């Protein structure tokens, strides 16, 4: 049902509808971003959308949603936190977000996008704490980009099995993110090692 709805949305509204869906979906539209991103990847593989255009529009919608959460936290965070704390489900999400923030600090913005529920509250809480926007954007947008690269690629390459991918989507995205992070760490260390060797030479 979710897949059919997303496909209809894309067919009727194109890139604009996709952007708005991802932007305002943060405010309660009951379709997980995992489903949307993988469906967009699948549709791109069918040439319904241009792959690069679809990827960029999806990413723009995601960053718009993250920025909106950050802005809400920065300007009206106090009354909203009081409101959320009165509701058990939101109170638990806030507590989980704070634990992640305490453990990983600004890097939690990158990690939170891989955790449904926290991906919107962590930016909101960092907005409330008045983290500089440049720092927020660096970590939040890079985490969203990595997440989208994994989700979009899964949908693009394995769209025929998208039901199974969605069923195990969280595990697949986490595995893909871990793999990508390992490669990033290896490349970073290799580059630093080469720089040190040049300094010693």
TrEMBL record:
- Keywords tagged on the record: Membrane, Transmembrane, Transmembrane helix
Keyword Signal assigned to the entry: answer is no
Extract one GO cellular component term from the record.
Answer: plasma membrane
Look up the domain of life of the source. Answer: Bacteria
Q: Any transmembrane segments, and where?
A: 20-40, 52-73, 138-159, 165-186
Query: InterPro entries under this entry?
Result: DedA_domain, VTT_dom
Give residue ranges for domain VTT: 31-156
What is the similarity comment for this entry?
Answer: Belongs to the DedA family.
- Protein name as annotated: VTT domain-containing protein
- According to its UniProt entry, this protein's organism is Bacillus infantis NRRL B-14911
């Amino acid at each position: 049902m979710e897949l059919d709805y997303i496909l209809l949305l894309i067919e009727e509204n194109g890139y604009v509808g996709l952007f708005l869906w991802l932007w305002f979906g943060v405010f309660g539209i009951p379709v997980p971003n995992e489903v949307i991103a993988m469906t967009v990847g699948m549709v791109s593989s069918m040439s319904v959308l241009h792959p690069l255009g679809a990827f960029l529009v999806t990413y723009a919608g995601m960053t718009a949603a993250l920025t909106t959460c950050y802005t809400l936290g920065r300007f009206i965070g106090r009354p909203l936190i009081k409101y959320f704390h009165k509701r058990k489900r939101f109170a638990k999400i806030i507590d989980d977000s704070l634990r992640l923030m305490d453990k990983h600090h600004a890097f939690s913005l990158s990690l939170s996008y891989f955790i449904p529920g926290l991906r919107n509250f962590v930016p909101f809480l960092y907005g409330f704490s008045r983290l500089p926007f440049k720092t927020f954007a660096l970590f939040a947008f890079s985490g969203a980009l990595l997440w989208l690269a994994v989700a979009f690629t899964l949908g693009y390459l394995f769209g025929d099995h998208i039901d199974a991918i969605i069923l195990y989507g969280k595990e697949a995205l986490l595995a893909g993110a871990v793999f990508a992070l390992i490669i990033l760490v290896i490349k970073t260390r290799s580059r630093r090692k080469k720089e040190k060797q040049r300094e010693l030479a």
